[in-house]
């Protein structure tokens, strides 16, 4: 019993220091941080919520300091355009899309209760890292512009704009310029995932 109490005290002391706890949890894949780690106890959930690097890896807080990017078309550039800041600066990072944006657009228009909950945390996740100001969703022959304002477009913004559309495949204009995040989300540590998000384009 004494040994158990001693171990618990050491555990509490370790996770009572945000920097140490953060360093440990950053070695866990983002998917596990979002789905499982926060269910262990309130302390772990508070650490995940308070940690800027973890929140960035989970797409809750933006990387970089350019603000939401917007698309500028230019036939002279690769793929007919680029994503730039409101000041016209080119983004030094590759833009990574949330790994669930494709499935979200393909969901039947009768969502599960978990998806439909207005307080669900996934709604606050950014559509991309770094965030983009607005996107155009193609719905058949129609187009829906989704503007996320100064915070950037979130997954909730996309769902709210499209979930009443007729069933069928939807797509987002200019997302061919984005990179995937699936491998980093499931298989890499959050620290490795964050390094991938912040890697400067060559």
Concise description?
This protein has helices at 2-15, 18-25, 30-40, 42-50, 52-57, 101-106, 113-116, 155-162, 182-187, 190-198; strands at residues 70-73, 81-84, 96-97, 128-129, 134-139, 142-147, 171-172. It has 202 residues and is of the alpha+beta class. The protein starts with a helix and ends with a helix.
Outline the secondary-structure elements:
Elements: H1 2-15, H2 18-25, H3 30-40, H4 42-50, H5 52-57, E1 70-73, E2 81-84, E3 96-97, H6 101-106, H7 113-116, E4 128-129, E5 134-139, E6 142-147, H8 155-162, E7 171-172, H9 182-187, H10 190-198
Antiparallel strand pairs: 1-2, 3-4, 5-6, 5-7
Helix pairs in contact: 2-4, 3-4
Keywords:
alpha+beta, 7 strands, F-box-like_dom_sf, 3-stranded antiparallel β-sheet, two-stranded antiparallel sheet, disordered N terminus, 202 residues, F-box domain-containing protein
């Amino acid at each position: 019993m004494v040994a158990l109490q001693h171990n618990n005290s050491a555990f509490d002391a370790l996770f009572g220091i945000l920097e140490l706890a953060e360093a440990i949890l950053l070695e866990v894949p983002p998917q596990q941080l979002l789905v499982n780690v926060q269910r262990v106890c309130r302390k772990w959930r508070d650490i995940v919520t308070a940690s800027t690097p973890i929140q960035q890896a989970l797409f809750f807080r933006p990387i970089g300091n350019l603000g939401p990017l917007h698309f500028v078309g230019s036939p002279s550039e690769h793929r007919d355009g680029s994503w730039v800041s409101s000041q016209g600066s080119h983004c030094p990072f590759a833009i990574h899309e949330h790994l669930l944006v494709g499935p979200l657009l393909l969901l039947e228009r009768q969502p599960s209760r978990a998806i439909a909950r207005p307080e669900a945390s996934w709604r606050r996740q950014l559509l991309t890292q770094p965030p983009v100001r607005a996107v155009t969703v193609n719905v058949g022959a129609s187009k829906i512009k989704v503007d996320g304002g100064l915070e950037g477009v979130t997954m909730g913004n996309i769902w709210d704009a499209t979930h009443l559309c007729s069933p069928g495949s939807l797509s987002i204009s200019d997302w061919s310029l984005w990179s995937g995040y699936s491998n980093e989300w499931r298989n890499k540590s959050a620290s490795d995932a964050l390094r991938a998000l912040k890697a400067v384009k060559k």
